[in-house]
From TrEMBL:
Organismal lineage: Bacteria, Bacillati, Bacillota, Bacilli, Bacillales
Organism this protein belongs to: Fontibacillus solani
Location of the Glycosyl hydrolase 94 catalytic domain: 624-806
PANTHER family named among the record's database cross-references: CELLOBIONIC ACID PHOSPHORYLASE (PTHR37469:SF2), CELLOBIONIC ACID PHOSPHORYLASE-RELATED (PTHR37469)
Protein name: Cellobiose phosphorylase
Gene Ontology MF term list: carbohydrate binding; glycosyltransferase activity
Superkingdom field: Bacteria
């Protein structure tokens, strides 16, 4: 596929883009596990932070990338030619961008480093600027600028590093911008400038501050700057600006040296280096460090560890190896090497979201930091493949966020398993939240065979909200903590299985007047937030129905594999298993609601702490009955058709209890979400799946932007959600929303509609790499807008789903209660010319290179697994569906170190 923008260089994901400044909204992530989070643009704009209240550079949105004059600038005053910015971020260079005087420039990037090269047209001076965040325990970003004289004449250069030091909370950007500058205490040392505000001045209160923000620098030989411009107003001069500062333009001599203290002004990390002469062909480098520390800088250590070219180069090599090793945990090799490399960047994205949350890049969903409940579970899908060692603990800790009423905490702490009682008094429940943990936990159980996790005890979350946020416990206070207690005041714990059962069985009874589960505050689509009273989510009723069926199967496996004859649950929960103690009619909405109200009353404030022991087969049977009722109910009542004869499932009811989808005066209304979960969960029959795909192609598929999240509803929907206030074709209102589109592909693959699923996935890839329209670096965006531009790049849960779908469905590598299940669903075009496609992944604590050999180049549906050879020896496998099962013990006998090769022979 021809790419008219960036191009991959080599075979390891590195890419190059000429004249990157010609594209707006571009940025690149630089991050480490220590908590340094940076974003860098083609002109070295962006932000540097360790959290919402600790920004070294000014917090920004994407509009600031081209409107703000701030950046990680490095100026060179070239004698005879004047001031020049190595990043291109000067008033003169910006004005030349659209003229024939434009300079040559290009950026290169890899995992995770960013390089900008720019040529000074008049003097033939070339600048190469590399930025990265080292994989150390420090919150630091490093930048190396290498200046090379490519001309014939000797050049006389005066360099100045210039990074604005914001040094405070994002909350101070507007409300207290000047006042908080009065708190700045600025110190100069031999190699740089530190800013330590006297107070933190934000919503947490005016407290003494220790956090320090620093800019340090040295040349390649370790020579320190010769002076500083630590105040912004002095640096830019009267009438000047960050993109045309007087001190640089006039090549002024700095008056501030090391050992000076200043206070009360906006700070500037401006370091002046000695004037040098650079002969033809000669180069010189400078290293600049941008640092956030918990107190005043350990100056000697940072200079020694970071401020030399040798240290920079060694740390860069370490950084490249670190990210390469991490991403090599999973890699795909097919007939399309460019797509394989693109997948490397998709594979990186779930890790980025773990580190950034949904914040701290120029596009952000949650500007104050953190992730939501749904994110915790969906990010774990990819982490199970990428970083499996900690997944068990993450899953276990996450269940501590479940409330006893089946809802969950909505404020997530920064540490695993940390949930914070609501401090904003916003009573809201997303009805889909209970559905995701089972999906993620099942993947873990299948990958590991660890059924024991289900029986581990865990606490429940508690705050002022009770009865699924429909009431408050006015006597509850923060001092009581955020864990559910018994009547005796002891912390109550139930098994992980009890948490899962509760999350999925409570919604079964929480139904609206059409018998579907209530929409409440919203479901997966947060934009459907205006139907809390009579709204219903048919889509997630299907999801919960399939979950209940999965729980039935899980309990039977627990009985068969672990010999578990009974389970223990809180005695108050017994009423929810109604078929075991006097069944109610599931067709009766009032009976369901009354039973649920009875349960709410029993657990509103505390629980008894007593457990009931139930027969596991009886519990499983109860769940199966509920699941089958949901499936039949949806097939009978929510299967609709248009006047044109297309058929699909209705997805929602609005707050006037009106069916949302179907024929309307403004046109046909249809949602993709309503189709995904009915297909994925088995509600749709095979015949219905075929009809759904035809309807989707008719009403949602668009040649320009792929599969829309919904068709046009023809105006705002105050009885459904804010999403319809967005312009059609943007975000949750009719954009190609990657997350649901990928899940649509996943559902199709699961049901054996492989060609249709591949077409959906391939459309996302082609939209993302069509740089002329998408204007984004490699990876998948949150959504594609009406113009085809990729929006909210890097931080999207869709990356986890692409990785999961490609590995477990397309390449057919998945677990089955700890055993390895191989069932490839690859099309003929996905094999190379020799009929080979392969994937490397972790399973059973072994690195496996799984090679599919398709010597006849047969298409999907024309081949099956004939044999499996492990490290050269044929092994016994068991047929399972359209694939085979390889017992875990076979893999555990392999050496733990090194790669094991599994050759899978395909044939007719």
């Amino acid at each position: 596929m021809r790419n008219r923008g960036w191009e991959f260089q080599g075979g390891h994901g590195e890419f190059r883009l000429k004249h990157p400044e010609r594209s707006s909204y571009l940025y690149f992530p630089l991050v480490n596990e220590a908590g340094m989070m940076s974003a860098i643009s083609p002109n070295l704009h962006g932000e540097i932070t360790s959290g919402h209240n600790t920004f070294l550079m000014e917090p920004i949105s994407v509009e600031d990338l081209h409107n703000s004059k701030a950046s990680r600038n490095f100026w060179v005053h070239v004698e005879g030619y004047g001031a020049w910015s190595v990043s291109g971020n000067s008033a003169k260079q910006n004005s030349e961008q659209f003229t024939t005087a434009e300079e040559n420039s290009f950026m290169e990037a890899g995992f995770l480093w960013h390089k900008l090269t720019r040529d000074h047209r008049e003097s033939s001076l070339r600048a190469e600027t590399i930025n990265f965040v080292p994989v150390t325990d420090d919150k630091i970003e490093l930048m190396k600028i290498t200046l090379t004289n490519n001309g014939n004449d000797e050049l006389h250069l005066t360099p100045t590093a210039a990074i604005p030091l914001y040094g405070r909370s994002a909350d101070d950007l507007r409300d207290h911008r000047h006042v908080t500058s009065l708190l700045h205490r600025v110190y100069t040392s031999e190699h740089g400038i530190e800013v330590q505000p006297a107070l933190s001045f934000d919503e947490r209160g005016h407290k003494a501050n220790k956090i320090t923000y620093s800019v340090l620098g040295a040349d390649a030989n370790g020579n320190a700057p010769i002076g500083f411009f630590p105040e912004t107003e002095e640096f830019i001069g009267e009438g000047g600006a960050l993109d045309w500062p007087e001190t640089v333009i006039a090549n002024a001599t700095p008056t501030i040296s090391a050992g000076v203290s200043l206070e009360g002004y906006e700070a500037m990390g401006a370091l002046r280096f000695e004037t040098i002469s650079l002969a033809s062909g000669e180069s010189i480098s400078y290293v600049v460090a941008m640092v956030i520390t918990d107190d005043r800088l350990d100056y000697t250590r940072y200079v020694q560890d970071y401020l030399s070219e040798a240290s920079f180069d060694a740390l860069l090599a370490q950084n490249q190896k670190y990210w390469s090793d991490k991403l090599n945990t999973v890699s795909f090799t097919s007939g399309d090497s460019e797509q394989d490399q693109w997948m490397k960047w998709v594979t990186l994205q779930p890790i980025l979201r773990r580190l950034y949350g949904n914040s701290f890049l120029p596009y952000h969903d949650y500007g104050r930091g953190g992730r939501g409940w749904r994110d915790l579970w969906q990010d774990c899908l990819a982490l199970m493949v990428m970083e499996p060692d900690e997944v068990r603990n993450l899953l276990f800790n996450n269940y501590a966020g479940v409330r006893i009423d089946g809802s969950n905490a909505t404020i997530i702490g920064t540490k695993p398993g940390e949930f914070i009682a609501d401090r904003n008094n916003i009573p809201r429940v997303w009805m889909d939240h209970g559905a995701w943990p089972l999906l993620t936990t099942l993947l873990y159980v299948h990958q590991s065979g660890d059924l024991d996790l289900l029986l581990q005890p865990q606490s429940y979350f508690r705050d002022t909200f009770i009865k699924r946020c429909k009431a408050r416990d006015l006597a509850w206070t923060l001092e009581q903590g955020n864990k559910l207690t018994t009547a005796k005041g002891e912390i109550y714990q139930g098994t992980i299985l009890e948490h899962i059962l509760l999350q999925n069985i409570v919604p079964f009874f929480n139904v609206g007047e059409h018998g579907n589960i209530k929409l409440e505050g919203a479901d997966w689509n947060d934009g459907l937030d205006l139907a809390p009273n009579r709204g219903e989510s048919v889509a997630f009723t299907a999801f919960y129905g399939s979950n209940l069926l999965e729980l039935f199967r899980l309990l039977m496996q627990l009985k068969e594999r672990a010999g578990q004859e009974t389970i223990e649950i809180a005695e108050e929960m017994v009423v929810l298993f109604d078929s075991m103690a006097g069944s109610i009619s599931y067709d009766s909405i009032s009976a369901k609601q009354q039973l649920l109200d009875q349960y709410y009353d029993n657990v509103a404030l505390t629980v008894s702490g007593r457990k009931a022991k139930l027969n596991i087969s009886d519990v499983a049977g109860d769940l199966k009955n509920k699941a089958l009722w949901i499936m039949e109910h949806l097939r009978e009542n929510e299967w609709i058709s248009s006047k044109e004869g297309y058929e699909w499932f209705n997805g929602y009811y609005n707050d006037d209890a009106e069916r949302v989808e179907g024929d309307y005066p403004t046109g046909v209304r249809m949602t993709l979400t309503g189709q995904v979960f009915t297909i994925m969960g088995g509600v749709a029959t095979d015949d219905q799946v075929g009809k759904i795909t035809s309807a989707v192609d008719r009403y949602l598929k668009d040649k320009k932007i792929g599969y829309r999240l919904n068709s046009s509803f023809g105006g705002i929907q105050q009885n459904l959600g804010r999403a319809f206030g967005f312009a059609f074709g943007h975000k949750e209102n009719g954009a190609m929303f990657s997350h649901m589109t990928v899940m649509y592909a996943n559902a199709l693959y699961k049901r054996g509609f492989v060609k249709e699923g591949y077409e959906v996935l391939d459309s996302i890839y082609r939209l993302s790499v069509d740089f002329d329209k998408s204007r984004m670096y490699p990876g998948v965006p949150e959504y594609i807008n009406e113009k085809g531009r990729g929006m909210y790049t890097y931080l999207t849960g869709s990356a986890s789903w692409i990785l999961l779908t490609q590995l477990t469905e397309m390449y057919g590598v998945k677990g089955y209660y700890g055993d390895l299940h191989l069932e490839p669903k690859l099309l003929k075009s996905q094999f190379d010319q020799q009929g080979i496609a392969s994937v490397e992944t972790l399973f059973a604590d072994r690195k496996l290179n799984i090679v599919y050999r398709n010597p006849q180049l047969a298409d999907y549906g024309q081949y099956q697994v004939k044999s499996v050879i492990v490290n050269g020896a044929a092994v016994t496998v068991k047929n399972e569906g359209n694939g085979v099962l390889l017992h875990r013990s076979v893999l555990e006998q392999l050496p733990a170190e090194g790669n094991a090769e599994l050759v899978v022979i395909l044939g007719s």
